[in-house]
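Morning run. Coffee first, then this:
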Amino acid sequence: MDVTTLAAVEGNLATIGYGLAAIGPGIGLGILIGKTIEGMARQPEVAGQLRATMFIGVAFVEVLALLGLVTGFIF
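And here it is:
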């Protein structure tokens, strides 16, 4: 295998790897946001606290997605 073919294969594997790495945070965001909305519907008086906690959780989940993206560039 020459260098160009090897680089193309590594690039394709990195793309597939990031796609697989984005599945987890995507599922996590869906669960997190869905449960927050459910909690707000059940107890509207704590909506502000739930929203603030949700945004902190969203930030942590998004870090996982960005970590998968950066890992594809490093390796």
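Residues 18 and 69 are 6 Å apart (CA to CA). Good start to the day.
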